[in-house]
Amino acid sequence: MFRRIIAHSTLALAFVAANSHAQQAAARPFGIDDALNIRSSRIEDVSADGRLVALTVRVRRDALGVDNARYGDPTYVTPSPAEFELIDATSGQTRSILPGKVQVRGATFTKDGSKLAFFVQKGDDWTVDIYDVSANKVRQIAAHTTKQVASNSPLSWAPDGKSLLVTLRPEGWAASSRAAYLGIAEGPIVVQDAKEPFLSWDAVRNLSEHQIPAIVTVADGTVREVLPDTRITAPRFSPDGSYIVYGTTEPKKTSYDNTSGTEYGVFKLSLAAGSKPDTLVNPAERRIAARWNDAVTAFAYADRGNIFVHGLGPDSARNLTAKYRRPVSKTDTTRASYTLVDWRPDGGALLVSGKDGYYVLDVPTDSMSLIYPLEADSSTRPTRAFVTWSKDGRSLYFSRSAKDRWARGLERFDVATKQAAELTQDANLYGSWHVSDDGARFVFERSDGDHPNDVFTAGSGFSNPHALTNLNPQLADVALSHTELVSYRDADGKKLYGVLYYPTDYVAGKKYPLVAELYENYFDNGYSEQMDLMASRGYFVLHPSVNLEIGYPGESWEKGVLSAINTLIERGLVDDKKLGVFGTSYGGYATNLLITQTDRFAAAVNISGKVDIISFLGDSPKIGTRNYNAAEKGQDRIGATLWEAPMKYIQHSAIMFADRIHTPLLMLTGKQDWNVPDTNEREMYYALRRLGREAVWVQYADAGHGAGRAGNEADFRDHWTRMFAWFGDHFEKGATKHPASDGGR
């Protein structure tokens, strides 16, 4: 199996935000009801001046009750009811756009911010509604068509604000798509033939892309279909509204490598009556992610390290970077490679990134200059992500995060002076950045790293940052976990980071049980229902990172996770006799692998995680070839096919080493799990039972991927109650009965 690793921990620890960990005496523990009542926001759109924010707010409880059995049904839309609000960022005033909780999507403001268009689900159909901001009124467009609006339709305003581009379903689409789904899901006879171009479930999935682009007039609901059934992507109006540009994605066959089997094209369509599309890029398997300039007269794209610009003619592509693809240095013969970031707003240049920094690439002359050189050491260089280019072209905005501490925020780079200015940087967690056209207002989400996000705004130069929402006031008297960033070295000496969640009743000098939740790598903190629920039980909860190596990923868990835990034990924080581990999906897979390598844990929980990577290859038909891709080139990191390296698949299947498992194992699965079918974990239950080991398998009949957390409310409560009991009982010495196992053996 794996090389046996003795996980020596190191003494290195990095602690951030050293606040008092002790909770106020009046605070009550975080419970299941608290988790169900958490409200979270999504910024749907922000007006160009940054003043108006369209916001949806969802409650965790409302995410339960999904019909998981209908996953893969093109006619089924997962329910996601939300409060739909408009916030004035200048005054802080909030108003409801629609009463109650509704299913909305696609919200987009007109250029002047006077109107907001959006889709509303009503029964099996979607309507197009318009909200007039000044009048505070919503009007449904009575579209003159018998065709349904597509559930995945784009929604784009024409520049004059008088019409919208949407897509419709072909006549009879719903009935035929539903019949196709039932035919493969229920039979009674299902035949799959390898001579067919698609796997059967791929063919059903592709039905969701049937769309007819149409222009809807806002005033009277007139509908004009501008193209036949077309798999359209990213449609965009020209500034004068006389034409649209768009891409197409046309699957031709099932692909096992994600690089073939689909053809991508780019087109221009005049909106004059009777017009036919002009082909700018003939459909081919090489994907072109076209990024258009504001004038919609040219698009740029990256291809194998080069940057191209293409005009409105069919043969107008120019490679702007060919002459810059020189070896990186005398000792590094790798040719320089460039990635497209964005157009300058005037369309005269592009921002591109290279290994050493950001460049401005002049489109007319092909000249390129490094304007923002990055720190030489990429291992310590802060992580930057482009946010936007100011409309006047003078400033670039980047989110920024340090790699060795929680120092996160936003910076502004002056193109003329080539200087970066820190607008904000602190231990808070930021996201969903929006910058107004004039750079005078910012809208974003922020959390202190322990609480759920709220929506914030700030003025020019990031002045006066303040909250626009208070989504969870009910948490004022609830004890949430405090988080810290910890560092350690794995058994190979590689420095890694993890996030430690403190017990909500923490008292310095006392040792506590610890439960580790596994996945891949962690650095940022943030509210997490599972971490807070476990911390409320009086446990440290750890998100450890691991160094996953292609071909040998299984070894990483013992090398990294145990080193992280040893570090905390040496610090005097953790009771080494009360260690637990759990994970969901890939994390559940990691948990099962880890307990074949060590007996240090008192208890473990695998939630919707595979145990047999060989049977898993074909276990999830609704997601097509994903499992093959994951094993060969993706998350599972085997790095080869089953037939090229059969032993690696055996070595990374915990079921093959079930006899080495002595850790009590609770397995939670959803009967309707389309990702990791419950039958995969069932293999481990039967194996451990055969071997006489302690194992409990719980199957939730209506739940999906995530077991009880992806079921109904009763499932959710049962899921967490069982986990609490499983760890609690096994942490208590001499426990002989485990409530989590009642009725399960």
Short description:
The chain is built from 11 helices and 42 strands. By secondary structure, it is of the alpha+beta class. Among the domains are: 28-32 and 475-741, Alpha/Beta hydrolase fold, catalytic domain (Rossmann fold, 3-Layer(aba) Sandwich); 294-355, no CATH class; 375-471.
CATH architecture of the domain at 28-32 and 475-741: 3-Layer(aba) Sandwich
Q: What is the count of DSSP helices, taking H or I runs of 4+ residues?
A: 11
CATH superfamily of the domain at 28-32 and 475-741: Alpha/Beta hydrolase fold, catalytic domain
Return the CATH class of the domain at 28-32 and 475-741: Alpha Beta
Say what the CATH topology of the domain at 28-32 and 475-741 is: Rossmann fold
Quick one: how many beta strands? Answer: 42
What gross morphology would you assign? Answer: globular
Largest sheet: 8 strands, mixed
Q: Could you characterize what this model shows?
A:
With 745 residues, the chain is α+β, with helices and mostly antiparallel strands. Among the domains are: 28-32 and 475-741, Alpha/Beta hydrolase fold, catalytic domain (Rossmann fold, 3-Layer(aba) Sandwich), CATH 3.40.50; 294-355, no CATH class; 375-471. 14% of the residues lie in helices and 34% in strands. The chain contains eleven helices and 42 strands. Strands 35-36-38-37-39-40-41-42 form an eight-stranded mixed sheet, sandwiched between helices. A four-stranded antiparallel sheet has the order 2-3-4-5, with no helix packed on it. A four-stranded antiparallel sheet has the order 6-7-8-9, with no helix packed on it. Strand 16 and strand 17 form a beta hairpin. The chain is globular and about 75 Å long.
